[in-house]
Amino acid sequence: MDETDTGTIAYGDEIAGAETFAEQSRRRAETERDAVEWAIEELESQVSTQGVDLEPLLEYARRSRESLPDRHRRSYEAMADAFDVDSDTYEVYVFAFSELCEELAEGTGRSEKNPKGCTNALVSSPKADLEVVDGPLVCKNRDVAGRGVRPKSIVEQPPIDRYHGFLTVDTCGTISIFKGVNDRGLVAANTYIDSERDDIDPEHQLRNGTAIRIVLEECATVAEARTALESYPTRRLMGQTLFLADDTDALLLEIDPVAERIAVDDESVVTRTNHFVHSRSTETESSTTRRERALELLEEKGRLDRDDLWEIAQDHENGPGDDSICRHPEPETDEPHAFGQLTTASTAIFEGGSPTIGVAMGTPCETERARCSFGEEIPADLRTGARWLERMH
């Protein structure tokens, strides 16, 4: 990375000056260029070495791209034009990465298509200590396959036209958002559930990362977010648990497209991994073990604050490995990229009503924490992905 990575990048013309989604994406691509081009080059090498046929993955990727709102499709096209990379590999990286990991993993492989990744928690009044936090707390450990070629950065999108701006930590060079907070303080974060219909084509399915980005761009409150999601036919959604919080309200939605049902959980302590609690779904030992451990830790404490959630995010009980909340590669995992196992790639902690994110790149037990606020200066190495690259490689 260049010398600017030792400083900060302010919320000035470089970010706030974008007036269209395409322009914002071009500016973001320039910021994340080194990390993305490195990752695509690594993937190209792996694909070539293992003789992976990208054509079936490209067909799925292109069909999935058709499901995007026009503004998100323009964002993707602008970034694709900006990077000096193989266009096919980049398209698979954006839209079919978990499927590619299945092809690259040693043995049978484990990826985000299997219900084994991410641990989330939601804490609201009276369990949240509102004397020291601004609102309900949301924690997400983001577990991904292939984390060694999935660089992470702080992504900040300014308000554009009538759409809200947002702040998140997510994958460099992609357009999907799996957690974040917008400029009104609305928080959204999900866990993937293996519950999809066979009669909905990729062109007509609202991808989880698209749904969360729509919520953050279009909604200011939990009530608005719930209304927005319920405006779509549930059969067109993907299986997920969706955590929502603003300055006063918090709840979890279990979105089950197979049963065409959205169940609500508004208890003061809620945690989910990768199976439904109120509906039927595939349930693995890892998912059950991680949820039970998270609940145990949350319920044994009194009133909770950010530090308590950081402690839970770093928990190694039943590991550290596939069954722990903080997930490390198992001994047999294909290092350094870990295509065959979901491992913790980042941790994010939010407070409803506050456009601020607490973040750790990589496993939270080993990584320096940072707090970033919408509209303020943020270390350049967090915006570019350089800190992630240094941490992981």
UniProtKB/TrEMBL annotation:
Pfam families in the record: AAT
Matches recorded under InterPro entries: C45_proenzyme-like (IPR047794), Peptidase_C45_hydrolase (IPR005079)
Domain Peptidase C45 hydrolase positions: 135-320
Span list, region Disordered: 1-32
Domain of life of the organism encoding this protein: Archaea
Protein name as annotated: Peptidase C45
Native organism: Natrialba swarupiae
